[in-house]
Amino acid sequence: MTAGTEPDTDPGARRVLALASSALVVLVAEPLYLLVDTAVVGHLGAVPLAGLAVGGVVLAQIAGLGTFLAYGTTARAARHHGAGDRAAAVREGVAATWIALGVGAVVIATLWLLAPWLADLLGGGGEVAAAATGWLRIAVWGAPGILVALAGHGWMRGVQDTRRPIVVVLAGNGLSAIVCPLLVYGVGPFPELGLEGSAWANVGAQAVVGLLFVGALVRERVSLRPVPADMRAQFGLGRDLLLRSAAFQACFLSATAVAARFGAESVAAHQIVLQLWTFMVTVLDALAIAAQSLVGAALGAASVGTARRVSGRVTRYGLVLGCVAGVVFAVTAGVLPGVFTPDPAVRDVVPQAWWFFVALQPIAAYVFALDGVLLGAGDAAYLRRITVGSAVVVFLPTIWLSLAFGWGLVGIWAGLALFIVARAVAVGVRVRGEDWAVTGT
């Protein structure tokens, strides 16, 4: 069925904003912690900050590649929720959590062995690579917690549970934000661990969050045994989302590797702007998550009209938010980078990326809002095609041409700008059509 025949309902602006604001609290907790982490390590000097940049971008690939656990689970759980079957929606979370635990174990073993090679590849060897290796070999133990949390967010968003994720995420990341400077600098009874203290704080956050999400599943009183059929269904949708995520990660890994070739100051400056970019992606993604939940539920209830109204509303809200963010970052361009590092050499490089970051805010907001609509509809195959295509044709070539011609961060961030614009055109065309609005569970 591809057209809604049931009476349409409208969740209204209040419901959209309620889901988005709850998602925002959850989403910004991790980037805020990473910004705190960046600021704490940044005061150790350029080499530790560059080591964190290299190690952190590798660890971020786990979350990036694992987003299929969140987005795929949200899409499937939301359709069951829209059809009135909460137990089936929660069982999607059980399947996703088992997948998360299995993949997490593989990630620990793999990254422990490959950490030195990856650090040399991305960091260009020397002190930066050594610092990144030490950080990564500790931080990787948080991988199962990262993936379990993604699964937990997925099924809770699907059933429109807006309160428990806030408690879970604030508990884990709040505790680690307090402990991080204590372990890095050595305060009171805490040992001075330097950069490795940042890694231990990261592991603590992921462990707490993962355990709390498992506890939430237990309280739902559904069967917790793994069901192979449910897990295969998760992987079916997850395949396209995984390939889409892989395209993102290939681009950002390449960007860090190329930035490192221009020196510790360049990769440190790239880390600062990239963390702010990640933070804003997360903020803008709050509306996308509201769209995923509401569009999935609407299509599960055979209401295409509702899905289209949600699409229009989140796009308008996203554009307003993106414009406001662009103005704020433009005004604070002379102040904000200094919060993350006192090194004048690093601050001198930041503007090469900063103004691309500012100009992209409204366009990125439009893209992320419509990404959420299509993810809620389960249109993962289309998103995979346009993301991989844009990465291969636009972003990756520009990154490596930057190395060949010495364009530095200007070339890297110009590539990101072209990538975002290409995706904006593609998702806009798709949502104006009808192929994405398929109803049923």
Automatic annotation (TrEMBL):
<keyword id="KW-1003">Cell membrane</keyword>
<comment type="similarity">
    <text>Belongs to the multi antimicrobial extrusion (MATE) (TC 2.A.66.1) family.</text>
</comment>
<feature type="transmembrane region" description="Helical">
    <location>
        <begin position="276"/>
        <end position="305"/>
    </location>
</feature>
<feature type="transmembrane region" description="Helical">
    <location>
        <begin position="317"/>
        <end position="340"/>
    </location>
</feature>
<feature type="transmembrane region" description="Helical">
    <location>
        <begin position="407"/>
        <end position="426"/>
    </location>
</feature>
<feature type="transmembrane region" description="Helical">
    <location>
        <begin position="382"/>
        <end position="401"/>
    </location>
</feature>
<feature type="transmembrane region" description="Helical">
    <location>
        <begin position="352"/>
        <end position="370"/>
    </location>
</feature>
<dbReference type="Pfam" id="PF01554">
    <property type="entry name" value="MatE"/>
</dbReference>
<dbReference type="GO" id="GO:0015297">
    <property type="term" value="F:antiporter activity"/>
</dbReference>
<keyword id="KW-1133">Transmembrane helix</keyword>
<feature type="transmembrane region" description="Helical">
    <location>
        <begin position="199"/>
        <end position="218"/>
    </location>
</feature>
<feature type="transmembrane region" description="Helical">
    <location>
        <begin position="93"/>
        <end position="115"/>
    </location>
</feature>
<dbReference type="GO" id="GO:0005886">
    <property type="term" value="C:plasma membrane"/>
</dbReference>
<keyword id="KW-0472">Membrane</keyword>
<feature type="transmembrane region" description="Helical">
    <location>
        <begin position="241"/>
        <end position="264"/>
    </location>
</feature>
<feature type="transmembrane region" description="Helical">
    <location>
        <begin position="48"/>
        <end position="72"/>
    </location>
</feature>
<keyword id="KW-0813">Transport</keyword>
<feature type="transmembrane region" description="Helical">
    <location>
        <begin position="16"/>
        <end position="36"/>
    </location>
</feature>
<dbReference type="InterPro" id="IPR002528">
    <property type="entry name" value="MATE_fam"/>
</dbReference>
<protein>
    <submittedName>
        <fullName>Putative MATE family efflux protein</fullName>
    </submittedName>
</protein>
<keyword id="KW-0812">Transmembrane</keyword>
<feature type="transmembrane region" description="Helical">
    <location>
        <begin position="135"/>
        <end position="155"/>
    </location>
</feature>
<dbReference type="InterPro" id="IPR048279">
    <property type="entry name" value="MdtK-like"/>
</dbReference>
<dbReference type="InterPro" id="IPR044644">
    <property type="entry name" value="DinF-like"/>
</dbReference>
<feature type="transmembrane region" description="Helical">
    <location>
        <begin position="167"/>
        <end position="187"/>
    </location>
</feature>
<dbReference type="GO" id="GO:0042910">
    <property type="term" value="F:xenobiotic transmembrane transporter activity"/>
</dbReference>
